[in-house]
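User: Hi! Is it possible to get a structure for several chains at once, not just one? Here's what I have:
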Amino acid sequence: MRARGIPGARPTGLGKIRTRLLAGAMIAARPPVELALTAALRRTARLQPDVFSRLSMVGDGAFLIAPSELPVAFQLTPRARTGRVRVVRRDDPGPFIARISGPLMDLLGLFDGTLDADSAFFSRRIDVTGDTGAVLALHNALEAAELSMADLLGLPTGGRALARKGLAALLRGVSRAAPVEG
Amino acid sequence: MGSVELVCPAGSPAMLRAAVEAGADSVYCGLRDETNARNFPGLNFSPDELAGAVDWAHDRGARVLVAINTFARAGATDAWLASVDTAVKAGADAIIAADLAVLAYARDAHPGARLHLSVQAAAGTADAIAFYAEAYQVKRVVLPRVLSAPEIAGLIRETSVEVEAFVFGGLCVMAEGRCALSSYATGRSPNLSGVCSPPEAVTFDRADGMLTPRLAGLAIDRLGADEPAGYPTLCKGRFEAGDDPAYLFEDPVSLNAMGLLKSLRAAGVKAVKIEGRQRGKAYVARVASAFRAAIDALDRGEDTTRFEALLSDLAEGGRETAGAYNKKWR
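Assistant: Yes, the chains can be modeled jointly so their relative placement is included. Here is the combined structure:
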């Protein structure tokens, strides 16, 4: 599978090498990220079990959340008790029922409901492949959940604004450091 | 509430709260089944969520209108009747319905329930509205989106039923309640199953830099890299007639009649409605906020032009229209 990048971000040969090195480094460092994200998913399941009733049609299928700027993607299996998040190589992600890709900040905006998903899709900022029904179910479940970046990081309510700003800054830094494959 | 009631969509309790906090006077929503015309996966309310949302809205002076507006299947009306009972039990301020059996059941089983006639009934004449008012004690009609502003004014002069008109959101080319186009490709239609272009039948293919939306395998458009996309409905597909690909039925545009608020209010429109229960919190917060500001400005005697371009980026296909409200043909 060939990774798709954001417009105007076609890397040079050296850029491709950097991308592969970065992907290797991120894959090597994935266990704590996977643990944290999986814990956040299961915490959400405990706090908001109704969210998962909106995903009943998805079954055991996994979503691939693929930020355009990163050489890795997130494989999300949204089950109530046994859900998990894995970090996978963008160009070798394993099985998924649907893939949602786009700029990282837009994907985070979809996660916390601050970005209108339809507008992002209409304007081609967000790209969807695979089972459209499953993608809609995930979108609607996230909409109903009222999640924030603080939930993703497992922070208390008081730290939410700080968490959003801090995570956004961190992710922007990662994005700048990570050229995509053309 | 201003001189015109602002009615906004909610596909979840979170979206309902976002709508009210952004200035909606009323919110409409549906239960999570085929009894409403936005039966998309993961969308809508459970009975418990509806009851909680009604309490929350009432505490803030907002009203909740429950759409039970698909057409009941002959011989299998239980789900629709149960939805009426659920809405009444939850304390809904009105039920929005189109099917005669649903209206009759609500009238007989819950005599105190307020009934609004759904746009799905396509009641666009004084005679049609009078029939629903006399037979089912309907208190409000949601007009089909095929009438011009002068036609609405003429209609209101002939009826005592409150009139609600769509002013923003997705636009159907068909007379509401009578479109079966989706079912020819997928077996399901908005009027019967509550879903137009069911998402399980929708796919997007990519090849040679082009995006091809398909419905049940049928290609209905072919888009270049920078062309805005829309949700793939057959009525907004681009097809070849002769050698020219064109949007034969309807361009993928969205309704924005904010510029006609003053005319609609002068015509006697009681409530204006925003489409889009499937859109989400960010959408409804922006649209409700903009229309709240415009209605309030109107009530202060101010011009509303400055609000009209605030929502352009939310439009399907990236383009807006005032639809039939400004039509010059007959």
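Residues 294 and 307 of chain B are 6 Å apart (CA to CA). Chain B has two domains: 5-171+253-326, 184-247.

User: Great, thank you!
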